[in-house]
Specification:
The complex is a heterodimer of chains A (220) and B (287).
Chain A lengths: L5 H5 L1 H35 L2 H16 L2 H11 L9 H26 L3 H9 L4 H16 L1 H14 L11 H12 L3 H29 L6
Chain B lengths: L2 H6 L9 E10 L2 E11 L4 E5 L6 H8 L7 E6 L2 E2 L2 E3 L5 E3 L2 H8 L2 E4 L11 H11 L5 H14 L15 H14 L4 E5 L7 H16 L4 E4 L3 H7 L2 E6 L2 E6 L1 H6 L4 H15 L16
Parallel strand pairs in B: 3-10, 3-11, 8-9, 9-10
Antiparallel strand pairs in B: 1-2, 1-4, 4-5, 6-7, 11-12
Helix pairs in contact in B: 4-5, 4-6, 5-6, 6-7
The chains are: A mainly alpha (220), B alpha/beta (287).
Chain lengths: 220, 287
């Protein structure tokens, strides 16, 4: 079997549509994951007693079960309890809620890694709690979490492929459709791999740049 | 809150700047402070010395309530630190709000500097002024610049702390404390984590401040320094205040056998490193 790039050209509109949707869902899902994960991480760092167990259970559930299972339950199980969501919404929410569990742990660890002495110094001057978090903890924490966040964003990007199973017409969905119509597997999946790789390289590049720019103060 | 003092009656009309009365503290079952009392008057330099683990730093940290204590009282200008009495007369932890107000009057210099590494040197010094003393940023930075100049770091204001030597970082720490114009500065072993050749630059800044009449409470292992600048020295051992006195008494005619042994051990250890015997045999008396 010979490699036939023209196959890809004839499916260019579908591939483009799939690629765009992949990026959109990834961006929206990641935004949700970061925002929710930040709140969960802050809650467990700050030791809000009433939230400790709910946060713990949330993290353990979304981290402990496969994204695929979560998506199936939401998409096919939702209607039976009166929640009917379209594939796009399930995709964004599913990715976001799943990623939030991981981001919660990244942020919690980030908060906890600020040396106690720095906070003591702030307290010794009478700097109030909110100002300590805002001026001392947050700016450093956000730098410390850049590498692990980049990593997670890349994982979430590739996990968007799983959304094809619940009929989200993203890149993997389009490529799968293409193989069913053409019976060619190599070209579509080579293209698929190349697209994801290019995107993840871009994310990794931006992550490294952010790390260098923001973390300048750490280099002697 | 000053009424509390008036009621006590026995205290003079102008209370000491800082006063500790029978302060005791436990870490679990282990007692780290046993009924320690002392007073610090304005413009005084008080050094607290003693072996490692004697409770010196803990005592200092009780003064601005970074450490809680189970018994006794500490007063800052007659105002109780950290605790208030409930209606039933029971001792309750003071509101965070009141602690913040109280801490405005004290500043601390730490053994590990505890600078904020993501801020420039200038911002490290300006930040408490902005966040606590409600100074406008330009005004705060202007004052920060003046104080940094005073500790000899005018050229480093735009640098990040981790790019400075330990001695420079500690001088930033001192500048940060000075900038808020506190009633007193608490020094927690300010030279203990410095390389020997960097200790001098920090001590000379502190000597200058002592000359200017700044109130200082200093936990230190630098006996020569204590002998030179302290108005009074407190010797602490196993959480007990063993002896307190002017340097010329405590260092040269210690009343207690424990003080004497502690000083002798210190002298032995330190003269090992000197090629001229006798130079460190006694700390030099204050001129």
């Amino acid at each position: 079997m010979s490699f036939d790039p023209s196959l890809l050209a004839s499916y260019a509109p579908q591939l483009r549509e799939g690629l765009e949707l992949t990026v959109v869902i990834w961006l929206l899902g990641s935004a949700l994951a970061v925002a929710l994960g930040f709140m969960l991480g802050l809650a467990s760092y700050a030791g809000v007693a009433a939230l400790a167990w709910p946060v713990r259970i949330y993290v353990e559930f979304f981290r402990g079960t496969p994204l695929l299972a979560q998506l199936f339950i939401a998409y096919y199980g939702g209607p039976s309890i009166g929640i009917t969501l379209d594939a796009f919404t399930v995709g964004v929410a599913g990715l976001g809620l799943y990623g939030a569990a991981y981001f919660a742990e990244i942020f919690r660890a980030g908060f906890a890694s600020i040396p106690e002495g720095q906070l003591e110094a702030a307290r010794s001057f009478g700097i109030p709690r909110m100002a300590r978090i805002r001026r001392v903890i947050l700016p450093q924490m956000l730098v410390l979490v850049v590498p692990s966040s980049t990593n997670l964003l890349i994982i979430l990007l590739k996990d968007t492929a799983i959304l094809s199973i619940v009929t989200v017409p993203e890149l993997t969905f389009q490529v799968t459709g293409m193989t069913l119509e053409t019976f060619s597997y190599v070209e579509p999946f080579a293209a698929l791999a190349a697209f994801y790789w290019a995107l993840t390289e871009l994310v990794a590049f931006l992550g490294r740049r952010a790390e260098l720019r923001l973390g300048g103060y750490l280099r002697p | 809150m000053r009424e509390a003092v008036a009621e006590a009656g026995a205290k003079p009309s102008t209370p000491p700047l800082i006063e500790a009365v029978g302060v005791s503290k436990w870490f679990g079952a282990h007692q780290v402070l046993s009924s320690v009392s002392f007073a610090v008057e304005p413009s005084e330099v008080v050094c607290i010395i003693g072996p490692s683990g004697s409770g010196k730093s803990t005592l200092l940290r009780c003064m601005n309530f970074l450490e809680e204590f189970e018994e006794g009282e500490i007063y800052l200008r007659g105002v109780p630190v950290g605790y208030a009495n409930s209606a039933a007369g029971r001792r309750i932890r003071d509101k965070e709000r009141n602690l913040e107000t109280l801490r405005r009057d004290l500043a601390m210099v730490f053994q590990q500097f505890n600078l904020w590494p993501h801020m420039t040197v200038l911002d490290n010094v300006a930040q408490p002024l902005i966040l606590v003393h409600k100074k406008r940023p330009e005004e705060a930075r202007e004052r920060a610049r003046r104080v940094l100049e005073k500790v000899g770091l005018a050229e480093k204001i735009g640098e990040y702390p981790l790019r400075l030597s330990g001695g420079q970082q500690q001088r930033v720490g001192i500048a940060r404390a000075l900038a808020v114009e506190p009633a007193a500065i608490l020094f927690d072993e300010p030279t203990s984590s410095l390389d020997p050749e960097l200790i001098g630059e920090v001590l000379s800044v502190m000597k200058e401040l002592a000359r200017e009449g700044l109130t200082m409470v200093i936990v230190t292992h630098e006996m020569h320094f204590a002998a030179e600048v302290a108005d009074r020295v407190i010797f602490l051992d196993r959480g007990v205040k063993v002896e307190e006195g002017v340097p010329s008494e405590l260092f040269f005619r210690p009343k207690s056998e424990r003080t004497r042994r502690f000083l002798e051990t210190w002298i032995e250890r330190n003269s090992l490193f000197l090629d001229r015997p006798g130079t460190a045999s006694r700390p030099h008396p204050a001129p």
